[in-house]
Amino acid sequence: MASRNRPRPIRRPLINKEAGGFDQCWATLQSAMTDIHNKNASKLSFENLYRASYKITLVKRGEDLFNKVKEFETEWFHNHIIPGVDELVRSNLPSIALIQMSTSSSHERREAGERLLRGIRKIWEDHNTSMNLIADMLMYLERSCAETKQASVYATTIGLFRDHILRYGLKDVEGSDQPFVILDVVIAVVLDLINMDRDGDIVDRNLLRDITGMLEQLYQTDEEKEKEKLYTTIFEPRFIAASEVFYRAECEKLLRESDAGSWLRHTRRRLLEEEERCVTSVSNFTKENITAVVERELALAKMDDFLAMEGSGLKAMVDNDREEDLGILYHLIARIDKSKNTLKTNLQSRVMELGLEIEQTLKNTDFSAPTAAGASGEAEDAVEGVDKPKALSPAAQQTAAAIKWVDDVLKLKGKFDTLLENCFNNDLVIQSAITKSFADFINMFERSSEFVSLFIDDSLKRGLKGKSDEDAEIVLQKAIVLVRYLSDRDLFERYYQKHLGRRLLHGKSEMHIEKELVRRMRAELGNHFTAKFEGMFKDMELSKDLSNNYKDHIRNLGDDDKKSTELAIHVLTTNFWPTDVMGRGVLQDGEGSRADCIFPPSIKRLQESFYKFYCQDRSGRILTWVPSTGSADIKCLFPKVPGKESGPLSKDRRYEFNVSTYGMIVLMLFNNLSSGESLSFEEIQLKTNIPVSDLTKTLTSLSVPPKFRVLAKEPLAKSVKATDKFSFNAHFVSKQIKIRVPVLSSTSKVEGSEERKETERKNDQTRAHVVDAAIVRIMKQRKELTHTQLTTEVISQLFGRFKPEISLIKKRIEDLLAREYLERMEGDAPAYRYLA
Amino acid sequence: MSDSKYITLVSYDGFEFVVLREAALISETIRAMLRGAFKEAQTGRCEFGEIRGPVLEKVVEYFHYYHANRDQTDVPDMDIPVDICLELLMAADFLGLDSRPQMRDLS
C-alpha cells in the first residue's frame, strides 16, 4: 500500500548473481555474435542482447565485456577469416609477384588482381555489417565508454580488422625473405589496375572505389584521428608516387614520338580522366593532388621543350593560326600558372620577331618594279589617258614602302586580335603583353611616326573617296589603333600637321572624315595634341566664308569689271599650320623669303583690295601672302600661226591653264613681250624675285614636258639652267581646253634623309622646351625634390606626348641651374630647390 | 516489405502499446532495434523484459508528447506521477532517452 507521494521502489526480476550474472549474459552474447557472423541475426531478439550487455554494464564489468569481445573477434579472424584470405592471395600468385616485377600478361594480372580485390571486399563488407550489429548490441556499453573516453566498440573492431587481416603478413612466400603484408598486396594490386585503366584496359572501377572506400574508413590507430586514415597515410602517397612515375614516362614518350598538338590534347584528356577517376575509382579527396601531379609531370615539366618544337611548337601554332591548339594550350596554362608567364614571354618574343621581320621585308622589297596601283605621288605625273606603267621614282618607292609597312603591321595586329579572341579568351594579361610587344617593335622602328601619318594621308586622299561609311569607319579605326601605339607622339603630330596642311589646302580629302579622325584622336590623346588640327579646320571654314563675303563685297561695289580676277582665299593662322606650308621652310643661301616676291600689278591691286576688306572687321592684323602654295586659273589665247593653213595651228586656240601662283607670275611676264622676244632665266628671276629653286621647278613644269610646254626653252634640254632663255610658245597644241599643270608641292612624299634629320632636329628643340617647362612647373609646385624623384615626375607627366631620355632631362636640369631657376641642395643625394 | 507506420511495444507484464514509429524513434535503443537484422526489425514488435506496463505507458505518452510538440519552443514539462518516477528513470536510461535525440538515422 504504497503512498502515492513516494516513488515506488524498483521491482524487477532478481538478478541472480549466478544465473543472471556475467557469465550467463556473456554466453548469450557470444552465441549471438557467432550467429551474426554467420548471417543468422534474424532469429535473434535485439532486446535480449541489449539487455544482456546492459546488465553487465550495470554491475560494472563493462571492461571485461569489452575485452571478451575483442578476444572473440580476434579468434574469429584467425579461425575463419585468415585461412580464406591466405588462400585467396596465394591462389593469385601473380599478384604477389607484382611487388617484384610481374611478367605475366596484363589480362592475367587483371583477372587475378580483380579476384583478390573482390575477395577482400567481401570480407570487409561482411565484417562491417556484423560489426555494426554488434556495436548496436553493445550500445549501452558504449554510452558508458564514451563517458570514460575509451575507444568505441566499433572503432576497436575496425582496428582489429586492420591489425589482423590487413596487416597480416603472409609467410613463406616464394622468392622473398620478408612476409608480405596483405595491405601492401592490396594496394599494389589497386595501383596496377589503375595503371591498366590508364592504358585503356577495362577494369572494374566500382571495385576499386569500394577498396579505396574501405581504406578511407580505416585509421592508423584506434583513436581514429581524422588525418590518419589509412587511405591518406598509406594509400595516397603511394598512389601519387606511382602516378608520377607513370606520367613522367608518358611525357618522355610523347616528347620522343609525337608533336606539340598531340601533346596538348593528350594532356587535356589525362586531366579530365584523372578528375573522373577521383569520382569513380578513388576518393574525391585526392583530386587536387592527382591533378597537380598530371599538371606537373605532363604539362609543366617539358613545356618549354614542346613549345620549342619545330613545326608544331608555339611558333608554328601562331604562324599557322592553329586556333584549337592555342586554345587548349591557353586553358592548360591558365590552370597551372596564374600569371601565364611562359605563354606571355613566348608570345611576346614571337610578336617582336614578326614585327622586325616586317621591317626586314621592307628593306628587301624592291619597290622599283612598276605597279599599276601602287604609290601615290608621282602617279599623278602619269600620262593621262594612256596607262603606261612607269618605274616608280625613289620617293614614290619610299611612300609605297610606308604604306606596305603599315598594312603589314595592321595585318599582324589583326591576326593577333583574332587569336586573342578565339584562343585566349580575351585574357587581359595576354592582351597587355601583346600590346606591349607591338608598342615595342613599332617604336623601335624609327620611321613609324612618319609612316603612320603617311598611311593616313594616303587613305584619306585616295581610298576614301566614294567608300561607304562602314569602310571609312574601318580605316579610321585602324589608324587610331596605330596612333595609340606610338610613343613619340609629338613627332607624329608634326608629320600629321604637315600632311594635313597639304591635304586641306589642295582639297584632297573629305572634310567630315578628316574631322571625325581628329575627333577620335582627341579622345585618345587629349586636347593639347589636336588643338592645332582643329585650328586648321576652323581656318578653312573661315576662309570659305571670307571668300564668299569678299565676292559679295566686290559685286556690291559695282565694279563689274569683266577683266577683274576672281579671288578664292585661304587665311591661315600662323601657329596652326606647318611651317613649310607657310613657306617658312628650309631657306637656301640666305635668299629672300616669299614675302619679297614681286606680283604682277593686277594681282597687287587684288591683294590690296582684299586686305582692305579684311581689315574692315578686324584690327591689328598682318596678312602675308604665300605664293608657294597658291594656284591660279589663266585663260590663254594662242593666235593662229601665220603661214599655216590647215591643222590645229591654223586656228586660234583658247585654253584655260591651272598653274601654281609662281607659274602665274612667270606667265604674266610674257604678256608684255612682243612676239619673238624672249626672257632669260636671270631676267625672270630679277623681275619676279622668286627663289631660285622654286623658279627652276616652275619653269621646268612650264617648258619641259611636251604636254605643258607653254613656254619654249632654249636650249631644249630637259633641265633648266640659269643660262636658258624662254619665250612664248606659239606652236602649243593640246587636245584639252582645260589643262592642269601639276603643282609640285601637293603630294606628301616620304622625306629624304636630310629632311628627316631636319624634322627630328626641330622636334628635339621643341622637346627641350617642353621638358624645361615641365621641370619648372614641377619644381614650383614641390619646391624641393631629389634628382630621381624629379626625373620620375617629368617622365610621368610627359608620358602622353613622348618618352624623354634621361640624358635630355639631365641636360635641361643643368641648363636651368645655369639660368638660376633651380639651385642645388646640400645633402647626400642630389637634390634641387626651386628659386622663385 | 515496407515498414508500417506503427510499431508495438510490449511490457514484460503483457501490456501492448501501439505507437507511431516516427515518435518512438527518438529512443536510440528502439532505433537500433529496428534497423538491424534482428527479429524486432522484421516483426515491428519490441518486447521489453524489464519494463512494467504503467511505466511503459508513460514512456509511450512521452513519445507522443514529444512528437506532437517537436517544432515548438518553451513546451511545459509533462506531468509525471511521483510513484513511478524511479522506474521511469531506469527505463529512460535503458532506452537511451537521456540525451537529446540526434535525428540522423531515423531508419
Automatic annotation (TrEMBL), chain A:
Gene3D superfamilies: Cullin Repeats, Cullin, Chain C, Domain 2, Winged helix-like DNA-binding domain superfamily/Winged helix DNA-binding domain. The keyword 4Fe-4S does not apply. One of its GO terms (molecular function) is ubiquitin protein ligase binding. Pfam families: Cullin, Cullin_AB, Cullin_Nedd8. Coiled coil: none annotated. Keywords: Isopeptide bond, Ubl conjugation. The keyword Kinase does not apply. Belongs to the cullin family. This is Cullin. It comes from Apiosordaria backusii.
Automatic annotation (TrEMBL), chain B:
Keywords: Nucleus. It is found in: Nucleus. GO terms for biological process: ubiquitin-dependent protein catabolic process. InterPro entries: ELC1, SKP1-like, SKP1/BTB/POZ_sf, Skp1_comp_POZ. One of its GO terms (cellular component) is nucleus. Its main location: nucleus. This is Elongin-C. It comes from Apiosordaria backusii.
